[in-house]
Amino acid sequence: MPELKPILLVEDNPKDLELTLAALEQSQLANEVVVVRDGAEALDFLYRRGAHESRNTIDPAVVLLDLKLPKVDGLEVLEKVRADPRLRQTPVVMLTSSREESDLVRSYELGVNAFVVKPVGFREFFDAIQDLGVFWAILNEPPPRRNGE
């Protein structure tokens, strides 16, 4: 049986982080949720650098990526992931409070799988995160890895 892939959550807002983790936990997903707080740390995790150098070699089932991040913003993280043959098929969901059309357009130009505006209401946000977790970690069927990737 294949090992469960982790969910990578890239979020710098403590309240959004707490709520997202609670919603994922309530979904009863068996996947580990790895939390990083900025874009640089997300890239370190994905590329197994720095503090994440010795992590398991299994890439995430999905990256839940905030748009506005310290150090390296979400669009730059997305751009690097999509430019890398080893990571390009990893699903990335932009999870943001931005309602700017330019952010939406740019995210899709760079190859985001989904763009979700964080709902303002607690219940709506909670439900959205639960749905995302279940879809990407359980329901989505990713393409098979090719040799060398």
From TrEMBL:
Keywords: Phosphoprotein
GO biological process: phosphorelay signal transduction system
Keyword Phosphoprotein (UniProt): yes
Domain Response regulatory: 6-133
Gene3D superfamilies associated with the record: 3.40.50.2300
Official protein name in the record: Response regulator
Nucleotide-binding is among the record's keywords: no
InterPro entries: CheY-like_superfamily (IPR011006), Sig_transdc_resp-reg_receiver (IPR001789), TCS_response_regulator (IPR052893)
Domain of life, source organism: Bacteria
Residue numbers carrying 4-aspartylphosphate: 66
